[in-house]
Amino acid sequence: MSDIIFFLLAGLGLGSLYAMLGAGLVIVYRGSGVINFAQGAFAMYGVFTFDEARRNGYLRLPWFDFLPTHTVNVPVSIKLSDEGVSTPVAFVLAIAMAVLIGLMAHFLVFRPLRSAAPLGKVIGSLGVMLYLQGVAQLNFGGTGRQPEAITPDGVFQNFLGLDKAYPQGAFWAVVLAVVIGAVLWLLFQFTRFGLATRAASSNEKGAVLLGYSPQLLAALNWVIASVLATLAAIIVGPIGGSLTPIGLSALVVASLGAALIGRLTSIPITMAGGLLLGAVQSLLGFWASKDWFPTILSSGARDVVPLVAIGLVLFLRGKKLPLRGTVEEKRLPLAPYPVRIKQHMIVWSVIVIVAAFLFEDAGPRSVFALALVTSLIATILMLSSVVITGYIGQISLAQLSLAGVAAFIMARMMADGAKLTPDGAVIPFPVSGPGLPWPIAALIGILVAVIVGVIVGLPAVRIRGVQLAVVTIAFAISLQTLYFENSKATGLTAGAPANVKPASFFGIDLKSIGDRGLKDRPEFMIFVLVVLLGAIALVANLRRNGTGRRFLAVRANERAAAAAGINVSRTKLLAFGIAAGIAGIGGVMLGFNQNDVSSAGFVYQASLAYLAFAYLGGITSVNGAIVGGLLAPAGLITVTGAYFFADAEIENYTAILGGLGMIITAIQNPNGIAPTLQPLFQHFGRWLRAARGPEWAAAGKRLGPTFVVGAVLGYLVWPLRVETYSQFWMPLLGGFLALMARGIYKQARAGGHGAPPGAHGAPPVAATTSTPAPAEVG
Amino acid sequence: MALLKTYDMTVRYGGLAANADVSIEVPAGKLVGLIGPNGAGKTTFIDAITGFTAISSGRVEFDGKDLAGMTPDRRAHLGLVRTFQSLELFEDLTVRENLLVASERPTWWSFLLDLVRPPRTSPALEARVTGALEALGLEGIADRLPMDLSHGQRKLVGVARALAAAPKLLLLDEPAAGLDTVESQLLGQHMRGFLDGGTTIFLIDHDMGLVLNVCDYIYVLDFGRIIAEGTAAEIRKDPAVIQAYLGQSAGEMQAQAGESVAARVSGTETGGATHG
Ligand SMILES: Nc1ncnc2c1ncn2[C@@H]1O[C@H](COP(=O)(O)OP(=O)(O)OP(=O)(O)O)[C@@H](O)[C@H]1O
Ligand SMILES: [Mg+2]
């Protein structure tokens, strides 16, 4: 008994961190209707700023040097002293940084997004999270840090007569949380500012009547949330051990649990919920070591509890949660009716097959083969987001986890406990299993993914919008900790990958790794291509048939859909099932590509990134998924960039650029990239078909100067930073970039976007009848 | 035979009885109207019949079946199809697709076919959709998106969508709101056309001219209660109805139906109701 009490109390330390972050989430949600997935990242940047100033005497600013020169640089850090500043100074700096980040988040991201669709806001806050993580990795390094605690670090011996030593840090953390909770409560309950904020959260006019600008209130609330996060992390963070950018950002999940317990409205209940979650987690951690505890849960119970809490609370409260979005719910971009699927497929197939043979055995350029395969598989995964988010409007952040389910199940189903492959290679971590042939194993994997997908979709029956997004993250984390990382469930030694046997087709080997140990086998790439084309056909057919129409009807208006005779719940579950099946296909292909599956490939953060890139590409169309796949981590565009800019170490910037891309897309171009590019491509295609000698000459005359200017600039500017490849590639790239800039400029001046591209039926008639002037090409 | 019958149906929102002991009857093949001032509970009545809001007490029978506990989509399949007062079209679908959604009756395995086969709709379905488009004169805009249409056209698309579901009973919630007089008269003609096609209609509207002109039988609702019922001629004379409408402030009256309501109700408008 005294053990139970002690461990409950011991968890209050971490619980107070959840409580304070959760309070910040509530404040932001009330102030601007955003569920701030970056709350943990705010805390992270704050505590690292503090530690860096105190330890090394540097103030690291939350941006990066984007100028491509060695001579002119953007200041990214300020040196304050040689051997670190005093604690109070560091503290003030960290708080100032928190204020700055809060203001930046509001004015640069969420104010522009204030009337965006819920998905846009989710993507915006994920973008902020990714951006801050990326900047932190550049500024502070990705490795763990152990900041010195500023609270006394002793222990209370024989605490409360429980016969155990209780860390003083945890005690002070709780005290702080309670004090802050009281202050916040007083602030929001009894001051004019608090009254206005509460008024504004139900009705913007309310705040105006009280003489406040709603946007000013929102900004102040962002600042409060950010400062709160920083404060919590500085004081409580160190008791959790070593801190990493990723680990701290992940705190947002448990904090969301607390915030949802408080219905995203009540700060006191949220904080109590946070403390409770911490306490229960600590107790479960203690119980997990006991004999009677189910061993399959012992490694994951601690992390899954907050998530179960989130799911249950939300589900039980059904649609009663206050959700601002429901009042002025903005729509997702149009999901255009796909046209000329076959022609597109043929063109892409030819390109990919040529590439498959071109990059076989191509020395260092073989990296392109691997990148292309990665992009093709990522496209499959993003097609699953197109179905679940693009077509039926449910924000699922668990699609990659579902892919993981399929991959792990397949690996297990084809395992037979052998220690050697048929060619005699050693299998490092053999697992026993039924040893099924690959097609059956893959099919079972996909089917299990479908079943799990439908279960993930169950809450969607009663939960909508961003809250559903939170619940799907909860599922993603549960799958990760209870299955992928759980050696009891996978049969693997912790963290070890499971072997995947290569596929074969009527005697043709479909291995991804060739004789030279490189992943550049054309057979495999064609295998992936065929599977991708199949997935594209499924998703395109879906949109053009009754099921897709019903999905879009549900997405547009659930009430009207029900009135039209659609069973909304069943339709949502169907969509989750289909999307999970497609994700499962992607997961199986990931397995074949890597020759093994490991938990590291399916962490929930990667799931978030996939949704983000699908959004970037264009979440509502097959073309968007293709663009998203090209943009995906380790995909063709990243690898091409890294190849050309070898010295710029572009891979250090992927998180930052990805985050910025998400933010900019959410604000500027919520339709994604594909719908924007499509008219350009159509135009170019038509021109190519019509062009004869004179047209080419005219085009050369018009575009030549731009290209030359770009090439010269490329030659002059880029070598300042990028030493390799510059002589040849940089001018070429500069030339093409200049052409692209010209094209975008012309298009913008010609009158913006016009009709939604590719919408419904035939291409715009005017464009087909007149021969387009070459000036508009490119 | 009565297609729809309610027995002392009551709907409560908290303390407010938005419908109190409402008992009405809609005979097959007839056009029945429901009028009443703002907030009288007309939309609530349709919501309750179609399963969008729970009934506190009482009973609803449709086509001889008790509807208790049935979801809105099941009721739609039975032939009980409604439109919405506010514009609730599927904004991402073309007009034709909007109608297709309502008219298709998928089986549980439809999705498998839909995944693997190229687009296809059955001729019967096409005929139904085309028929509904023609009935409202919307053929010309079949491939447009709702957002490109005028308010009047969108209203008509809402009606056409309901019609495409092959309803036995079509419940129209203020279909003429926001239409001009000509459009509104045209709609009245269309409705008589639906009746000839075998569809029973239940009409809510503020446009007294329309309701009194086209309806075979009219119920009047005020503060959730039925205060009068009868043919158009009877309703025109009914003192309770005149009281309910004249009892409102002038501003409200104007907002809901234009200045001529009182005149129309008191019978100065001569256009006689068509009796069927
Ligand atoms: N979901 C709800 N919760 C609480 N009260 C409601 C709800 N829906 C409607 N009401 C109330 O019920 C009453 C009847 O509303 P209803 O919309 O049915 O009236 P109506 O006759 O359709 O009015 P209108 O002519 O304005 O369309 C009103 O007082 C309204 O405020
Ligand atoms: Mg109404």
UniProtKB/TrEMBL annotation, chain A:
Disordered: region residues: 752-778
A Gene Ontology molecular function term of the record: branched-chain amino acid transmembrane transporter activity
GO terms under biological process: amino acid transport
Location within or outside the cell: Cell membrane
Pfam family, one: BPD_transp_2
GO cellular component, one term: plasma membrane
Keyword annotations of the record: Amino-acid transport, Cell membrane, Membrane, Transmembrane, Transmembrane helix, Transport
Species name: freshwater metagenome
Name of the protein in question: Unannotated protein
Annotated TM spans: 89-110, 122-140, 169-188, 209-236, 242-262, 269-288, 300-318, 339-359, 365-388, 395-415, 435-458, 465-484, 524-542, 573-592, 612-645, 703-722, 728-745
InterPro entries tied to this protein: ABC_transp_permease, BCAA_transport_permease, LivM-like
Topology of the protein relative to the lipid bilayer: Multi-pass membrane protein
Start-end of Low complexity biased regions: 756-778
Keyword Cell membrane among UniProt keywords: yes
Family to which the UniProt record says this protein belongs: Belongs to the binding-protein-dependent transport system permease family. LivHM subfamily.
Main location: membrane
Automatic annotation (TrEMBL), chain B:
All copies of domain ABC transporter, residue ranges: 4-248
InterPro entries: AAA+_ATPase, ABC_AA/LPS_Transport, ABC_transporter-like_ATP-bd, ABC_transporter-like_CS, BCA_ABC_TP_C, P-loop_NTPase
Entry keywords, A to Z: ATP-binding, Nucleotide-binding, Transport
GO MF, one example: ATP binding
Gene3D superfamilies per record: P-loop containing nucleotide triphosphate hydrolases
SUPFAM superfamilies in UniProt: P-loop containing nucleoside triphosphate hydrolases
Keyword Transport: yes
Keyword Nucleotide-binding included in the entry's annotation: yes
Pfam families per record: ABC_tran, BCA_ABC_TP_C
Any one of the GO CC terms: plasma membrane
PANTHER family: ABC TRANSPORTER ATP-BINDING PROTEIN, CONSERVED COMPONENT OF ABC TRANSPORTER FOR NATURAL AMINO ACIDS-RELATED
Identification of the protein by name: Unannotated protein
Organism encoding this protein: freshwater metagenome
